[in-house]
Design brief:
The complex is a heterodimer of chains A (260) and B (268). Chain A is α/β, with parallel strands linked by helices. Chain A has one domain (8-246): Rossmann fold. In chain A, 34% of the residues lie in helices and 24% in strands. Chain A has eight helices and ten strands. In chain A, the strands form two sheets. Chain A has a six-stranded mixed beta sheet with strand order 6-7-8-3-9-10, sandwiched between helices. Chain A has a four-stranded antiparallel beta sheet with strand order 2-1-4-5, with helices on one face. Chain B is mainly alpha-helical. Chain B has one domain (48-266). Helices cover 84% and strands 0% of the residues of chain B. Chain B has helices spanning 7-44, 50-60, 65-87, 96-134, 137-143, 148-186, 191-200, 204-230, 235-266. In chain B, helix 3 (65-87) runs parallel beside helix 6 and helix 6 (148-186) crosses helix 8. The longest helix of chain B is centred in the middle third of the chain and has 39 residues, at 96-134. The chains are: A alpha/beta (260), B mainly alpha (268). Chains A and B meet through helix 2, strand 6 and helix 3 of A and helix 4 and helix 5 of B. The complex binds adenosine-5'-triphosphate and magnesium ion. Adenosine-5'-triphosphate is lined by residues 17, 22, 40, 42-48, 92 of chain A.
Chain lengths: 260, 268
């Protein structure tokens, strides 16, 4: 399965908002079938990094290659035709279409991308909902009628519904109870192992990291300050990583809080 | 504080200020032009989202009927009352019917109808698309390989261009009917003569020019709603501002283009 062509290749990626530099020259390769977890403090630009790879944000410098093809400055039309179908994305806030029913949300990609008729798409949607631990009776509800954790799982079902090659999960387990979180972790592992998908996951949840990651990248102040196999995370020898995974207040990472 | 600055520095500040404003203006214009081009080009390029189009046709057309109908009937009624008080001084009552039908078909139907729909539809589109933008639903559309221009903007533009003329045609009829009611039942006009006076001076061009105006206004209203929604700022406040801007800019543009369209149609 492993080839030398990275599925995602990010080089020198820089993104600023006004004067604020969020990403400052990120280099990152993700191989096919790989499961990468990106960790880092809140507001360090993890979501921005994913959005730059997806082309939802335009980077100020650097390139993004998908399957070896430079997509950084691709036109919106070509991107929709040639690149986007490879992606599945779970947004941090869910981003469910609130004017559509749950099953229409989940089957959106199936009907628009693969031209599957509505009745069949609904069955697939219900099956995908079952995968994320939701009963068939939620299929006809609207997103606003669900709890936060249920919305997250619907969004997850939508992200994986088309069996994409590359899946981005932005905090898939935040807001879920520990048992459901484990179900979701298991599902992500399954996506990678059974479907051979490439996964990039952002999480703050160390249990998730240990369960789903093959490699871990830690983002801090616009740089990837540590990258390595998940098994090495406890012996990284990096003070930043140690502070982060043990959740200590004292350490090299300065939180912008006032201490009297 | 000013005393310590040299005149040259002040001049430089001044130029910089003007430059900034000018740059922002150019950027805004460019952004708007790009948005308009994108939207229009997506109307003609497949795939087409027919279901969205039907939904918007109903939203823009059917649900605007009450508002536009009420506006039209009271406009027709008040026109008759007002022109009667004026025209009866010159014993020119027979001209009232023609004045009413011409004012309604040429100007008041499209303009008042357009303004009412701008308030309804411009605001609704800006709020809906703005909310989708703020909650990342537009980004989600794009990750599902769907162009927001095709899926959201193009059906709305087409619905505006098609439905506004239909609404205005209905408004024309209701408006004339409102005038007829007041003339016949309140001012004791002969019904038969009133109707005859209504038709006798009316030309195809009067109605058609009104419908063309309506189509243009439909484009303006829906474009403004979508544009301001799509470029809405952050949070609930951003969406609120977008909604206001959509209605205000659509209304002003309607009045402005109406002047030029009237000039185009009737000033020879
Ligand atoms: N559209 C935007 N406009 C301006 N600034 C932005 C925008 N999006 C993100 N930022 C800024 O970029 C920085 C990184 O944001 P990002 O959402 O990537 O953080 P994150 O690492 O995902 O944090 P969290 O773990 O809390 O989700 C933040 O400081 C944020 O203020
Ligand atoms: Mg984030």
């Amino acid at each position: 399965m492993e080839t030398n062509q990275p599925k995602i290749q990010v080089q020198g990626l820089t993104k600023k908002f006004g004067k604020k530099v969020v990403l400052n020259g990120i280099d990152l390769d993700v191989m096919p079938g790989e499961s990468l977890v990106v960790i880092g403090g809140s507001g360090t630009g993890k979501s921005v990094l994913i959005k730059c790879i997806l082309g939802l944000l335009n980077p100020d410098a650097g390139t993004v290659k998908i399957d070896g093809i430079d997509v950084t400055h691709m036109s919106a039309r070509r991107r929709e035709k040639e690149v986007m179908h490879k992606f599945g994305m779970l947004f941090q806030g869910g981003a469910l279409f609130d004017s559509m029913r749950v099953w229409e949300n989940v089957s959106f990609g199936l009907t628009t991308l693969k031209n599957i008729p509505a009745a069949e798409a609904k069955d697939i949607a219900i099956a995908k909902l079952a995968d994320v631990g939701l009963k068939p009776d939620v299929a006809d509800l609207f997103p606003a009628e669900l709890s936060g954790g249920m919305q997250k799982r619907v969004a997850l079902a939508r992200a994986i519904a088309t069996d994409p090659e590359i899946i981005f999960f932005d905090e898939p387990t935040t807001g879920l109870d520990p048992i459901m979180a484990d179900v979701i972790n298991h599902l992500i592992v399954e996506c990678v192992q059974k479907l051979g998908a490439t996964a990039v996951t952002i999480t703050h949840d160390m249990a998730s990291v240990r369960k789903i990651a093959r490699h871990v990248a830690m983002l801090h102040q616009g740089h990837i300050i540590w990258y390595g196999p998940a098994s090495q995370i406890d012996h990284s020898g990096n003070a930043y990583v140690d502070q982060f995974i043990h959740g200590r207040m004292e350490g090299p990472i300065e939180m912008a809080v006032r201490r009297d | 504080m000013d005393a310590t600055r040299s005149p040259a520095a002040l001049l430089l500040d001044f130029c910089q200020g003007i430059g900034t404003v000018l740059l922002q203006f150019c950027q805004g214009t460019g952004q708007f032009a790009w948005f308009t081009l994108q939207s229009v080009s997506h109307i003609f390029r497949p795939p087409f989202y027919w279901r969205n189009l039907v939904r918007q046709l109903i939203e823009v057309g059917y649900y605007s009927l009450p508002v536009v109908g009420l506006t039209a009937i009271f406009t027709g009624m008040v026109l008759v009352l007002q022109s009667y008080t004026g025209f009866s001084r010159f014993s020119a009552e027979s001209a009232i019917a023609s004045v009413v039908v011409l004012s309604i078909t040429r100007e008041l139907g499209p303009v008042l109808g357009g303004l009412m729909v701008a308030g309804r539809i411009g605001a609704a589109f800006a709020a809906e698309i703005g909310t989708m933008k703020v909650t990342e639903q537009i980004d989600a559309l794009r990750t599902l390989s769907t162009s927001p221009f095709k899926y959201l903007v193009a059906p709305r533009l087409v619905a505006g261009i098609i439905m506004l003329p239909c609404l205005v045609l209905v408004a024309d009829i209701i408006g004339v009917f409102g005038g007829y009611l007041v003339a016949v039942y309140r001012l004791d006009f002969n019904p038969h003569t009133y109707l005859q006076n209504t038709w006798s001076f009316l030309q195809n061009m009067d109605v058609i020019s009104g419908l063309v105006k309506a189509a243009v206004f439909g484009f303006i209203i829906t474009l403004m709603g979508c544009y301001h929604g799509y470029n809405s700022g952050k949070g609930a406040e951003g969406v609120g501002v977008a909604t206001t801007n959509a209605v205000v800019s659509a209304s002003i543009l309607i009045l402005l283009t109406n002047y030029f369209l009237t000039g185009l149609f009737f000033a020879h």
